[in-house]
Amino acid sequence: MKYLKTMAVLIAGLLYVSASAATAGKWKQTPEGLPYYEYASSSSDEDPYFLLGNYRLNLRTHVNGIYELISGERVWARFNADPERPGYGRNRAVLMLDNASYDLVGDGAVAAEEVCSGIGFTRYDYLLDDALRCSRMISVMPSEEVNHGNPCFLLTVTLRNVSNKARTVTYDEVVIPGFVPIYAQETEEKDRAFTYPYRTSVSFRTVTASFNAIPQWYFQSYSADAPFLHEAAPEPLFVYSPDAFLSIYEDGIHAKMEDLKIRPGKSVKFNIIIGVSEKDAKRFADDMLAKAKDGQFGAYADMWKSKLPDYSSERDVAIRSELYWNAHVIEASAMYDEYFGETYVPAGSDMTYRNGLDASNADHLEAALAACHTNPELAKSIIRYVMSHSDAIGDIASGNAGHGFALPSAGDDVSLQTRVFYVLAEYLRLTGDYAFLNERIALYPKDGRMLTVVELVEKYFMRLRDLPSYGRNADVVMTESAVIAASVPALAAELKESRRAASGFVAELEAFGKTVEQRFLAGFSLPSGDAEIDVTPYAYYMQMTSVPVSDRRECYYALYDMEWLDMELQYPLILGLSSFDGIEAMKLYRKLSYENMSKNHPDMWDTWHSDDYSTRPHYWPLYLYARMHE
Questions:
Q1: What is the mean pLDDT of residues 101-106?
Q2: Which of 262, 422, 455, 483 is buried most deeply by CB count within 10 Å?
Q3: Residue 521's CB: how many other CB atoms inside 10 A?
Q4: Could you tell me which residue, 515 or 532, shows the higher pLDDT?
Q5: Helix axes 317-333, 616-628, angle to 10 degrees
Q6: CA separation for the pair 371, 149 (Å, rounded)
Q7: Each residue's pLDDT tens digit, 53-94
Q8: 342: part of which helix (H) or strand (E)?
Q9: Is 622 helix (H, G, I), strand (E, B) or coil?
Q10: Model-level pTM?
Q11: How far apart are the C-alpha atoms of 600 and 623, rounded to whole Å?
Q12: What span, in angstroms and rounded, lies between the C-alpha atoms of 189 and 216?
């Protein structure tokens, strides 16, 4: 079942392991009360990884020490891609202890004694020759405001002599540049639209690898600023260190500390900053160093604690940990889009992390529901991001690829418009930010045309009302009719409260919502049989206050008896159930917790591939928890 596989992936908080490694670690708590996973064995044949990041950086840290430096700011791409292993990163770390050499990173390297990963950090601890303890800790700083962030990570290396005599140590961290758009990673280089050779330059304590976009196909024209399916202006990769000696060789950029004499019981620590930036490398590096604090659980633990919602009142430790982790995933996976000028939460899974597509806007809007409760400014940016895909008649592109290259909508499908209604109503209800309705949105493509949020809402409504599939005299379209019946009254109420929408428009919107609800209820019937169905109309049916509680409860039990129902489909049902039976809704919520799934289905660990990760099982629990605790 799909929901079993999804939960198997997420039990360890974005840690992907096989069945044999399912008991290789355990969850723990940092002094700040944040969860982290202690992975005690790196001898598995699998290749687990963790997700770190902020709004300008997406970083995967593997248990074997490999990291993947990814950005989706222009196109989804890797900046240290391994040409021999599509979809993977490439870096090295070598330590010389007296006359012995140890590879610390990669397949076949010396295994870390312990690997810990949590909110904003991954740490690798080695014991070499019973003489030297080596710690490599990667820390990522949270974004402090929407549309901004530090596109770098801090690598802190600590060496401690635990023997009874002085030791000579040389440490060499190697960053290997290699820019590859994710959509092209499975294509041989000779068959790609562009190649990206790089040249290096050196300034004070900084080495920069600048990538040059060389077209291999004919293009009439392209520009770094216009919508384009490919990448014409990738940002450079840089390495900065206030401590290590930086040098350039054919095999990459080296940050090296040579011939360190470490006395018994003494330690040496140094920092390396690795990131992506065109002009501000030193400013970003200085910012990271200035805000870093000593600690075993990341250099920015205090910042992450302040960034995330406060779930300390939740008494169930497992649920509390999952809430913090889910909120972290929203923040770590969210990405600023340079073309649209907004930050959104990608769907992940095959679309984003394997194919490099931001499709679909429907998924981004679902993430915004959670963000309305965890980070309203992020939710607002996601709404603006989706609305920025609109044209002048109210059609919304389904998503985009490359650099702002919009993917066509489904023609007369208005599911995105109705979901904008739902999310916008939730945002306005929670924040009272009615001034947002007067903010101007640049239409797609960005050529100077702009409409306010409320003007676009009117366009969406008229498109919805006038299409034959959904208009006044249309047959019932169960799923969209359910969404309309749930979203239109809520939006109309907020528009009326705002006094920023024409009264005639609000009145017609209300009337349309009532008409669609009546048609929906007239054509509604309970599910039967064992065929897979779309549960959306049933989930919204259970939220309708005009329906007797006894009927809504009957609908819930009819669906609950369908054992095939996967986890992602059960989330909307919890929302519907919570509208009339909060106790039963919380029982189902806890039943679907990561901890519970790991106990009941440990055999599912080996069924997932790394790139199958989705953000959906993280933002839905956050949204449901918030709604059930209002």
A1: 97
A2: 483
A3: 17
A4: 515
A5: 130
A6: 17
A7: 999 999 999 999 999 999 999 999 999 999 999 999 999 999
A8: strand 342-344
A9: helix
A10: 0.94
A11: 24
A12: 10
Cβ atoms 338, 403 nearer than 8 A: yes
Tokens of 338: 């340079």
CA dihedral 114, 136, 60, 256 (to 10 degrees): -150
DSSP assignments along 266-299, one per residue: -EEEEEEEEEE-SS-HHHHHHHHHHH----TT-T
- Over residues 282-321, the pLDDT tens digits come to 999 999 999 999 999 999 999 999 999 999 999 999 999 9
Residue with more model confidence, 493 or 564: 493
User: Residues 402-453: pLDDT tens digits?
Assistant: 999 999 887 677 889 999 999 999 999 999 999 999 999 999 999 999 999 9
Question: What sign does the CA torsion over 10, 14, 19, 25 have?
Answer: negative
Q: Is 330 exposed, middle or buried (0-12, 13-18, 19+ CB in 10 A)?
A: buried
H helices of 170-247, where?
none
Structure-block tokens of residue 520: 């929906």
* End-to-end CA, the chain: 32
What count of other Cβ atoms lies within 10 Å of the Cβ of residue 103?
14
Orientation of helix 616-628 relative to helix 361-374, angle to 10°: 40
Query: In the structure encoding, which two tokens stand for residue 191, read together?
Result: 């068959």
Distance (Å) of CA 326 to CA 48, 367, 421: 19, 11, 25
- Contact predicate 541/533, CB 8 Å: no
What is the Cα–Cα distance from 288 to 453, expressed in whole angstroms? 36
Number of H helices, E strands in the chain: 17, 29
Taken in order 533, 534, 539, 542, the sign of the CA dihedral is negative
Q: What is the pLDDT of residues 570-605, one digit of tens each?
A: 888 899 999 999 999 999 899 888 777 777 655 443
User: Which residues contact residue 136 at a Cβ distance below 8 angstroms, ignoring those fewer than 6 apart?
Assistant: 65, 93, 104, 123, 124, 126, 155, 156, 157
Helix (H, G, I), strand (E, B) or coil at 452: strand
Measure Cα distances from 480 to 88, 414, 416, 519 in Å.
40, 8, 10, 12
Beta-sheet pairing, 35-39 with 132-139: unpaired
Structural tokens at position 322: 């999952």
Q: In the numeric block, which tokens belong to residue 345? A: 């939460």
Rounded CA separation 139/156 (Å): 8
Whether the per-residue pLDDT at 193 is higher than 50: the answer is yes
Residue whose pair of structure tokens reads 């670690």 in the numeric block: 25
Q: How far apart are CA 291 and CA 278, in angstroms?
A: 22
Helix (H, G, I), strand (E, B) or coil at 172: strand
- Judge residue 505's burial from the number of C-beta atoms within 10 Å of its C-beta, 0-12 exposed, 13-18 middle, 19 or more buried: middle
6 versus 181: which is more confidently predicted? 181
CA–CA separation, 382 and 306 (whole Å):
22
- Per-residue tokens: 61: 């840290």
User: In the structure encoding, which two tokens stand for residue 4, read together?
Assistant: 């079993």
State CA 484 to chain mean position distance: 28
